[in-house]
Design brief:
The chain is 31% helix and 33% strand. The protein is an alpha+beta fold. Strands 1, 2, 3, 4, 5, 6, 7, 8, 9, 10, 11 and 12 form a twelve-stranded mixed beta sheet that branches. Strand 8 and strand 9 form a beta hairpin. The mean pLDDT is 94.
């Protein structure tokens, strides 16, 4: 099984479910529902794809709930994104799924900051550092972070320079999978280009490697893709979220 097939099998077609989610398979489509709604995987025959899309629109319209459909560059049919657009889905910016082989962790470097892993009692430090990095409060749910910390599927890392929090990043470690994921990584403007981001990546990579993971993944906008490539990540496929709101 090649790397892209392994990713599809472990992370999309049969994902490890965080608390509050359930999974439904309908033919070549995988739907996650609960705390949020997501179509995580779709490999659909050309002649049936419109019917699948129409069914999902009807399902979530009847529920009165939004759903995100994650479209990867190799999904089928090849024109799936255009079909979603015709059905009323709205696209997020295109990203690139990047992957790093943790066997190459020695090349990451990462001495630009002190990195501390924080627990639920120090969640405020992560939220403060995230706001410093991105200029706005953390966009996700603090309760979801606490649940992930409690279940051991999330670790939170804060970068300090001269005793001040200047950056943060999240690592997701789904059980029984080869891939751990990097999310919410950022550094305050005044502390950029000083090795802090590299140190955040290195700390999370070490955590993932110690837990037995083989690969790190990250979804990168075009602005951050070159940074990850310099650290040794390589592109695997494109990924784009499409949102339907009834």
């Amino acid at each position: 099984m090649d790397l892209l097939d392994l990713y599809d099998a472990e992370m999309r077609a049969d994902p490890a479910l965080p608390p509050g989610l359930s999974l439904t398979r309908i033919g070549g489509l995988v739907r996650l529902t609960g705390a949020y709604n997501l179509i995580s995987y779709a490999s659909l025959p050309d002649e049936e794809a419109d019917a699948y899309v129409t069914r999902e629109v009807r399902h979530f319209r009847d529920l009165g709930e939004a759903v995100e459909w994650k479209v990867h560059g190799h999904d089928r049919p090849a024109d799936l994104a255009a079909r979603l657009a015709r059905a009323g889905f709205v696209p997020d910016p295109m990203e690139t799924l990047m992957v790093f082989d943790l066997a190459e962790i020695g090349g990451l470097g990462g001495k630009g900051a002190e990195i501390r892993q924080v627990d639920a009692e120090r969640l405020d430090a992560f939220l403060e550092a995230t706001e410093a990095a991105f200029g706005h409060p953390f966009a996700g749910s603090a309760d979801d972070l606490r649940a992930g910390l409690e279940h051991g599927t999330v670790s939170l890392h804060v970068a300090y320079v001269d005793g001040r929090p200047v950056g943060a990043g999240r690592l997701e470690t789904p059980p029984g999978r080869a891939f751990a994921g990097l999310y919410s990584g950022g550094v305050s403007e005044a502390s950029r280009h000083k090795g802090v981001y590299r140190a955040l990546v290195r700390a999370r990579a070490e955590r993932a490697a110690a837990a037995g993971y083989r690969y790190l993944i990250a979804e990168a906008l075009e602005t951050s893709r070159p940074i990850l490539e310099r650290l040794g990540f390589r592109p695997l496929t494109t990924v784009q979220g499409w949102l339907f709101e009834p």
